[in-house]
Structures are given as C-alpha cells and as structure tokens.
Amino acid sequence: MASSYDVVVIGAGFAGAIAARDLGTRGYSVLLLEGRDRVGGRTYTGEAFGRPIEFGGTYLHWTSPNVWRELQHYGLKLDFPHHIDTVHWLADGRVHHGSAEEFGQAAASVMARVAADARQWFPAPFEVNAVDTSPIEQQTMAQRFDSSGLSRYERDVVEGVLASLSHSYDEQGVAQLLLLVAAYCGDWAGYFESIGSWPVEGGIKQLYDGLICESGAEVRLSTPVAAVQDNGISVTVTTRAGERIDARTAVVALPLNTLGDIAFTPDVPLASRTMIDQKNPVLASKIWVRAKGEIEPFQTVAPIGQNPINVARFDSYHDGDTLIMCLCSDASAIDADDHEGVQRALRVFVPDIEVVDTASHNWGADEFSKGGWIWHRPGNLTGGAAQLRAVSGRVRFAGSDIAGLGAGGVEGALETGAAAAREVAGVLADGSY
Ligand SMILES: Cc1cc2nc3c(=O)[nH]c(=O)nc-3n(C[C@H](O)[C@H](O)[C@H](O)COP(=O)(O)OP(=O)(O)OC[C@H]3O[C@@H](n4cnc5c(N)ncnc54)[C@H](O)[C@@H]3O)c2cc1C
C-alpha cells in the first residue's frame, strides 16, 4: 500500500534522529524507517552485569557544537571522567609504567610530529576542500609513520595512542587524523579528550530518545530499506519486504558499510560509489570487562598487532568489582566471550587481574552497521564522502561516516543530519518539490 509523506528518513541513528526532529518540529510529516528493532544505531545503552552499559558511542564533549547544543536542549549532563592513576604502555618490546601525565608527555612530542601539518591541509576544518589536499589524501597512516623519522619506541607509542581509533594503518588514510586535529586548532590531545572521556550522565540513550520523541515522526522499526528511487516528481522507498512508500523527499542516514545494500536510482556520484564499494575498514570492537575486586584505576595502551586489547581503561567500581572498558582494533583477534583469553591479554599489563565476566556487541557482524566508526581509506574523506554530502535533489545523505568536521563521532552524525534537514526544509518550503 502506498503512503505519502513530506520526508522519509532512513536510519534511526543520531543523523536520522536529528533530521527527523528538525523536520518534524517544522511541521512536516516524517516517516522514520529503521532496520533494527531499536533506535540509536551505533550508540546503544544496553544492560550487562545488572546495570546500564554503553555498547557503542559513549563519550561526548562541550567542544562539539551540535552535541553540546542538543545536550543542553534536553537538559543532559556529562559525567566526570575518573582519574587514572597508572598507565601501562607496550613499546619497544616491553611494558612501561607511569602516571597519566608521564604517558601524556611520552605521546605528546611524537603525536605533535606526526600531525604537525594538520592546519596546513585543513586551515578551515569545516570546509574539507578549502585547499588542495591531494598530496596527503593518498597517504596511509603507515606511510605517515614511515616518513616521520620515528624510533621503534616512538612508533609503538604513536601506534598505541591511535590504536583506539584504528583498525589497519595500511588501509586507513592520514587525512582524517589531520582534519580532526586541525579542528582542535592543532591540539591532538584536545581532540582525543573530546572523543574518549566524558560519558552522558544516565546514558546516551536519553539523547537519541529525546530527539526521536520530539520529532513526532511515525517510527517503523524492523523495516530495512532495499531501494530508494528519485523519479523526478517524488521519491519511492522500497522496503526489503517489498512495500513501496512514496514521499516528496528522503534523507538517507545509513552507515557507509550498509549503503551498498541499497539500490539508488539515480546512482550516487562515482567517487561515492567507489567509497561505498571500498567500505569503511574499521572492524574494531569494544569489550566491557568485570574484574574481581576493586583495582586501582589504570589504563593500558598497545600498538595494533601486539596485543588483542589495544586500550583498557578503568571505568567504575560495581558491587565490589571493577568495570573496565576495552577497545580492540581488530575484533577478530579476540573472542569477547572468552574470559580466559581476555584475562590473558590484560595480564600482560596487570599480572594478577581476574576476569569475572565480559559484555560486548559485535558491530562488524551486525548487518545494520557491518563495522565500527568511520576512518576513511585514502581519498574518500575529501572525495566520496564530500560528494555524497553535496548530493542535491529529492534524496539527501547524512551520517557520521560522510561527515567532514566530526567524522567518526556523534558530532558528525548530528551535523550532517541537521544540514540535510535544513536543505530538505528549504526546498519543501519554497515549493520546489
Ligand atoms: C564501539 C563504538 C564506540 C564508539 N565510541 C564513540 C564515542 O565515544 N564518541 C563518539 O562521538 N562516537 C563514538 N562512536 C561513533 C558513533 O557511535 C557513530 O559515529 C555515530 O553514532 C553514527 O551515527 P549515524 O547516525 O551516522 O549512524 P548509525 O548510528 O549507524 O545509524 C544508522 C542507522 O541506520 C540503520 N540501518 C542500517 N541499514 C539499514 C537499512 N537497510 N534500512 C533501514 N535502516 C538501516 C541502522 O540500524 C542504524 O540505526 C563509536 C562507535 C562504536 C561502534
């Protein structure tokens, strides 16, 4: 049965949620189609160990303008991060131990060298193509490390620091790192704090639920979309179940790694099609660990390939035990349910740690994400992603995976979702469509 809406928004992650909210509150009729049986996308406040747990995107920051505006709009606060007493970092074949400040100093000089030219290539980070970036857009992270004149120790430090964002230094480009560091005025530590320190008090769920609730949109869960056709006078969205839905416009807010499952007519620009075919290389995982007893707050850091857990960080005490958040660059390198394997990986740093329980969500195996956060292959940040954002007509694209400023985080999802909504509202209001 055909229906008619002003806008169909496809995907109920943060990009889709804010697009639906901004169009719904402007008075347009919005249908929000979501493949999963829940909203929130790659952010997901679930339950484990008898308490709420963030399985996906967690940390937000006041320096992200869209994030901060929405937190304030819904009256949400950020929780203080816990102070870490000791950092254990694997470099040059052995584990080093020091305070958080000492590790910060070890990382600072190396990171500053690796990202020294960030502002040269992205002088106005809100416009990724403000200058010709071709000399660095083709450079992989590994090539950047090779050309930075690093000692073995320095290279391990930088590969450890960046492991919490990465999957493969040979596959990922350096441009996204430079853009995001440029966004923090060249201060890599500021960028790192923004993406990894401050959780939402009471859970990030409140933010995505707030947006969707205020949108007034008709929300259909468990409704994966298979095709989107702009036929010149309307948009026809076809679900996997074969239902055809007509609307004046559509916002597509899907992860890069699922865009290839949708038939677009007309097709997306060539550079964007190439990016979709190449896919986001990040197949990382986040594992929550419950360790026996109350352990002194610690953090571990390991380069990719040298330990299956690249970052483990104290989160909180819970019922006499310690909860630890672990990031693994390669989800296939460790089985999150194998308590002994997880314990073995952690014992490299904390020899007497006892793992009692673990919890995780496999984002790479999940058919509605097929991967983690975006970290582009060479060429796609300023190419395919920028071109997909610029698509005009009845179908617009949004999502953290195609964001410029804010790429890879909730900020990028909110920014692109709000931008798509502004453009759609503009054309709907002037009667063009
Ligand atoms: C483990 C992990 C930790 C992270 N940590 C942080 C962090 O601390 N801070 C931060 O800012 N960011 C973090 N991120 C990144 C952040 O979560 C994402 O960048 C952001 O949530 C993406 O939002 P989005 O709306 O662009 O995409 P998504 O959230 O992926 O939303 C897309 C939606 O589309 C739906 N969908 C997919 N295919 C179809 C289909 N065919 N039909 C209909 N619906 C479909 C999906 O189910 C999903 O709901 C993390 C990500 C992961 C995986």
TrEMBL record:
It comes from the Bacteria. InterPro entries: Amino_oxidase, FAD/NAD-bd_sf, Flavin_amine_oxidase, Flavin_MAO. Pfam families: Amino_oxidase. Its cofactor is FAD. Residues 14-424 form the Amine oxidase domain. FAD binds at residue 225. GO terms for molecular function: oxidoreductase activity. Belongs to the flavin monoamine oxidase family. This is Amino acid oxidase. It comes from Mycobacteroides immunogenum.
